[in-house]
Amino acid sequence: MIEVEVHQQLRAFLKEQGEPYWPHHLTIARLVARALRLRRSALIQVGSPSGCYGHYRLSYLAPILIWPGPVILVAPDWVQQRLLKVEISRLYQWMQGSKPVQTGNCWPDPSFRGLLLTSPAAWLDDQLGSQTAFPPGIPTLLDGIDDLEAWVQQQLTAVVSAQDWDDLMLTYPVQADLIRDRRVQLTRLLFQHPANPYNCSLVDQPEQEILTDLGQSLDLAICPQSWKTFWQRFETNHNLTWAEFDRSRGQFSLNCAPVEVAEVLSKIWPRQPVVLIGGAIDLDSEAALYRQRLGLDELTCLKFAPDVRGEMIQLYLPDGMPLPNTPQFQPALIRQVQELLGLSTAVQGLTVVIVGDLPLKAQVGSVLASEFGSRVQVEKTCLDDNGVLVTGWEFWQQHQAVLPAPHLLAIATLPIPSLEDPRVAGRVAYYKRLRQDWFRLYLLPEALNKLQRAIAPVRERQGVVALLDSRVIHRSYGNQVLAALSPSAQVSYLDSRLFTSLD
Questions:
Q1: What SS3 state is found at 208?
Q2: 119-146, pLDDT tens digit by residue?
Q3: DSSP conformation letters of 24-73
Q4: CA distances from 122 to 72, 74, 104, 359 (A)
Q5: Superfamily holding 313-502
Q6: In degrees rounded to 5, what are phi and psi of residue 158?
Q7: What is the pLDDT of residue 446?
Q8: Which sequence spans correspond to the domains of the chain?
Q9: Pairing mode, strands 71-74 and 313-316
């Protein structure tokens, strides 16, 4: 059986490399080989930090390259480049493999029996659209499913820009005055919405009525594609429509996307056996909530816990911190970060301070720079060897893979999506209308996923994570947060010995 062959060859390869390797390679390799042989779908949580840094990828490449049949591998472009230049190259050289490997946005040829690497955008565009680029029934592996929901939302978001209004008037010259009039009405109503840090606002009922009236006044069969896609999304049930503003130019773009992706994705999965691989997407080994959100039926599920010896973090969770929504929180946060920086001065390396609130982030950066000088930078990648990076969640997520692993990561508040973001508020309102638990189904899973990914580099160094949000102590969901941060050695007071093991 292929499971035996894969196990033997991968074990021999790892042994020949003569270097420490991830302990779960052989287990995952056998599971992927079994999925290929039986055409049975599987979902694998490889844990953190492996999910972020790709130590697990040899595990699925070995069975894919040994398997005689065709396989599709869906991964971001940067992952594809890493696979081609490093992992696949090493395995091929050792195995003396002959299986052809190609990259592209469609299946090369009906007779092709090799491995095709393609991007999530290309694969989803076909699966959610014409379904002509990739033949059905070919085993497909998706790497990095921590971002799968975001990929689908991005693919399904219809956008109408300022230029698209001009194109619409050119398409319907007889009705140009009507289109211009509706645009002026819409602009006036949308710009009455108060400004917010997210530069967007939900499209309310009066604005929706203007758009509906405009759509009914035009022959949609000949309208530009961007508008045709927008109205198709806009007319479906359970959509989220919002405007993004460029207030300096008095312009806006319209966006429309489904609130949930489970319904559309549930039609994709039966077309072929799939192996879904991510870092730590659900606290539950069966990934029940994740599967519900992604429209996945029953399938083989496997979850690996982080290595207690190699991925343990020191977790500082102080007693007595004010709640984040109180006036006392800001000065208490700054004092805690100053003290942490003072105690860790003997340890060389990067310190990262994550502050999600935009005004507070700027203030923390300013205060720290006044005390610690130019080593403090706000959302910059050019840092001193002993630098301090003050950043929001998005910037850290985008750049953490290329920055040194920090010895100290201080987190001001949990990354629970803010209800001040109109898009978050709109999705929460949807769950409320259905009388569903919007916090458990949406806000908390989003926060835990972002939190686990953020601390992944610290595990590489077995460093210190300071979580300065006392809701972990006082709220019922605190135990789930602590479970997501496991394995960790928790302390509630500051001591210089906290950093001793990092010297």
A1: helix
A2: 999 999 999 999 999 999 999 999 999 9
A3: THHHHHHHHHHHHHHT--EEEE--TTHHHH-TTHHHHHHHHHHSSS-EEE
A4: 12, 9, 9, 38
A5: P-loop containing nucleotide triphosphate hydrolases (3.40.50.300)
A6: -90, 135
A7: 94
A8: 2-139+272-303, 156-258, 313-502
A9: unpaired
Tokens encoding 378: 């706000």
**202 burial type by CB count under 10 A (0-12 exposed, 13-18 middle, 19+ buried):** middle
Asked if 494 and 340 count as a contact pair (C-beta separation under 8 A), the reply is yes
**Element of type H or E holding 113:** none
Alpha-helix runs per DSSP H in 131-248: 148-156, 162-171, 176-190, 205-216, 225-234
Which residue is listed with tokens 């040899």?
58
Q: How would you classify residue 96: left for phi > 0, otherwise alpha for psi between -120 and 50, otherwise beta?
A: left
Question: In one letter, which amino acid is 7?
Answer: H
Distance of CA 452 to the CA centre of its chain: 11
CATH number for the domain formed by residue range(s) 2-139+272-303: 3.40.50
Q: What is the pLDDT of residues 251-283, one digit of tens each?
A: 999 999 999 999 999 999 999 999 999 988 998
Using 70 as the pLDDT threshold, list the residues of the chain that sit under it.
19-20, 48-53, 501-503
Total residue count of the chain as it appears in this document: 503
Q: What does the alpha-carbon distance between residue 93 and residue 80 come to, in Å, rounded to a whole number?
A: 18
pTM, rounded to two decimals: 0.90
